[in-house]
Amino acid sequence: MKAVVARRYGGPETLQIVDVSLPEPGEGQVRVRIAASSVNPLDWHELRGTPHLVRLARGMPQPKDPSLGSDLAGTVEAVGPGVTRFAVGDEVFGYGTGAWAEHAVVAEKGLAHRPDSVSVEEAAGLGIAAVTALQAIRRGGLDAPRTWDGAGVEPMPPRVMIIGATGGVGSIATQLATHFGAHVTAVTSAGNRELALRLGAEEALDYAADPLDDGLARYDLIVETGGSRPTRELARLLTPHGVLAVVGAPRGDWIAPVASVVGRAVANRFTRKTLASILARRDADDLATLATLVGEGAIRVVVGEVYPLERIADAVRHSESGHVRGKLIVRIAR
């Protein structure tokens, strides 16, 4: 089978498409024939081996496993012992390792059934970024649509700011926060303001021109997907019990495991406010929740551009540029 590998750490120029053996599923694993994948910052962190903590996990001085890619959508081709939720022929999506390939073996808990109304390209964008968005929104206490029984005064909706509101994580987070009843302020580029409003934001700010700090501590949750703003500046915008959920950092200089260490170090500056570093936890229930929401039309995947597998290096360069609308999809099956 064809697979993308990088046998040394480096940039997109190190990527190769090679023939490798078909993997066999083990206990609790599923082999998927992959129709589409996507590109996440996590993928090029692993490609480059940055920060160096990544190399402790992947191997030094070169990767122990040269395969790459996380998100996938495709068809179950074989199941290992102990698998109960999937059968051969099921259409699935999720994330694991080695997804930039024609086939991959994935843990059962890393998959969910793909709704019939969702294309494989859309489903391929529902992996790490969407789970990260859902877990960030939940960290802020938004985990169900708000209801009101009509008694007393209707409570004010929670106020949420999404920084990077039209990227892979941000576009899903904006829709989820809106679905769960929040008033959403989106921060994005001038060219993407209309998209942010279509995704459900009540207002959209231009990150390059509009000030975020208006002197009011009014946000119950801020989801920061790019790390472009100082933590102290964003903390001033939170309500007394507000949550700042940090997903990434500028130019990929760190990722969430490192940010969590920093978060603990500065937590005393937040008093009752909370700084949370979000790194997606593999969770079958979260994938199933996302499948339901996208199947019902409550949220949608914004597909920015679709690349063939042969142009995987170009897709990675596009992702690293930071100028991505929605998700970059990689088409595997012809």
From TrEMBL:
Protein name: NADPH:quinone reductase-like Zn-dependent oxidoreductase
Positions of the Enoyl reductase (ER) domain: 10-330
InterPro entries: ADH-like_N (IPR013154), Chloroplast_QOR (IPR052733), ER (IPR020843), GroES-like_sf (IPR011032), NAD(P)-bd_dom_sf (IPR036291)
Lineage: Bacteria, Bacillati, Actinomycetota, Actinomycetes, Micrococcales
CDD domains in the record: MDR1
Native species: Microcella alkaliphila
GO MF annotations, alphabetized: oxidoreductase activity
